[in-house]
Amino acid sequence: MVQVRAEVAYDCDVLVIGGGIVGLSTAYAITRAAPGTRVTVLEKEGGPARHQTGRNSGVIHSGIYYRPGSLKARYAVRGAAEMVKFCAEYGIAHAVTGKLIVATDKAELPRLHALVQRGRENGIPVRELGAPQIAEYEPEVRGLAAIHVGTTGVCDFVGVARQLAHGSGAEIRYGARVERIDRRAGLGVAVRTRTGDVVRARVLVNCAGLYCDEVARMTGDDPEMRIVPFRGEYYELARPELVRGLVYPVPDPAFPFLGVHLTRGIDGGVHIGPNAVPALAREGYGWGVVRPRELAGTLAWPGSWQLARRHWRYGAGELRRSVSKAAFTTAVRRLLPAVTPDDLVPTAAGVRAQAVLRDGALVDDFMIKEGPRAVHVLNAPSPAATASLPIGREVARRALTMLGSV
């Protein structure tokens, strides 16, 4: 057991667990808001942004999908503008490309119209397009109708994370996997890493992503949710000239996933995906990656079974597209009829850290909770990279308020 003594000499004021873009944005926001505050970041990998931050499609989301007034809506809209400004200020590769959301079936038209209304409520400029106008933006894309969202873009989120790490002035310790946490409400928090190092802090911030619920429990707080990992599998388009920018289907409102979409990245390549299939490990980037303890933890959570019972038809379709390239190609052809199986080249997958409640409900907004001397970020999947600067400021505000009261 790690011990915290009354005469403890603190190694830092705020200790952040997790060196993804949210953790590093938090460290950056703390030192900007309160210069002189000592911040340490513990990251288990050998560098920053190795998981959700570095394994997504690189899209700066506009915020059009999210419920007006929600954290996702407010932080994505604000964060998109701030992310473009941040990238421009520090010379990080980015582009504001706009995107199309395309309805390919009559049943999707009411949902497309609802997105127009939602976009306007969120203060996002939206242009409605008929079928002939789609070709003005994407000659190879087919659909019944579409909307163009001009504020969407792409950027190098790993480059952003590196700049946040550098600009924060925090002590960043890589290769520092957390093994034990001892919190004493009247004294502070002590964290032991796998290498045996002990870091003592006044306040702990948990930005551990795929392991945030485990870190919360190690701290002694009940997160009242579990992370259920969903793998998103991507292909790269062998004929990138077929796609000019970003093309999305109309999403299913019952799910936080956006469906298989086409993304021209900052490197000029076009990624297609992701789907969403259950991962057999928190960092299960392929079917061959199985961690029995983590899988058992997922299966032991009642919400996992409730989720499976409620949405098994949707899940079956995702699994079919995972194991069958032909099925995946068929899904892509709804948007891009010219694509063939030979055009799809497998590329790196990502894993979404999705919070699921005990009743099987998918947490559809960012979730930040507090405990004694601790702030926990418990649900921050997409669009968290886009929204990372305002999320970081909110977590920093809570941590600094807590720091001022201890």
Structure description:
With 406 residues, the chain is an alpha+beta fold. Helix content is 32%, strand content 26%. The chain is built from eleven helices and 22 strands. It has helices spanning 21-33, 71-90, 109-121, 131-137, 157-168, 212-219, 292-300, 302-310, 312-323, 325-333, 388-405; strands at residues 12-17, 39-43, 59-60, 94-95, 99-103, 126-130, 145-149, 153-155, 171-174, 178-184, 188-193, 198-206, 226-232, 235-237, 246-249, 261-264, 270-273, 277-278, 344-346, 350-356, 367-371, 374-379. Strands 1, 2, 9, 10, 11, 12, 21 and 22 form an eight-stranded mixed beta sheet that branches. Strands 6-7-5-15-16-17-14-19 form an eight-stranded mixed beta sheet, sandwiched between helices. The chain has a three-stranded antiparallel beta sheet with strand order 3-8-4, covered by helices on one side. The longest helix has 20 residues, at 71-90. It is globular. The chain starts with 11 loop residues before the first strand and ends with a helix. The model has no long low-confidence stretch (mean pLDDT 94).
Features of the shown structure:
single chain; 406 residues; alpha+beta; 8-stranded mixed beta sheet; 11 helices; 22 strands; globular
Spell out the blueprint of helices and strands.
Layout: E1 12-17, H1 21-33, E2 39-43, E3 59-60, H2 71-90, E4 94-95, E5 99-103, H3 109-121, E6 126-130, H4 131-137, E7 145-149, E8 153-155, H5 157-168, E9 171-174, E10 178-184, E11 188-193, E12 198-206, H6 212-219, E13 226-232, E14 235-237, E15 246-249, E16 261-264, E17 270-273, E18 277-278, H7 292-300, H8 302-310, H9 312-323, H10 325-333, E19 344-346, E20 350-356, E21 367-371, E22 374-379, H11 388-405
Parallel strand pairs: 1-2, 1-12, 2-9, 5-15, 12-22
Antiparallel strand pairs: 3-8, 4-8, 5-7, 6-7, 10-11, 11-12, 13-18, 13-20, 14-17, 14-19, 15-16, 16-17, 21-22
Helix pairs in contact: 1-5, 1-11, 2-11, 9-10
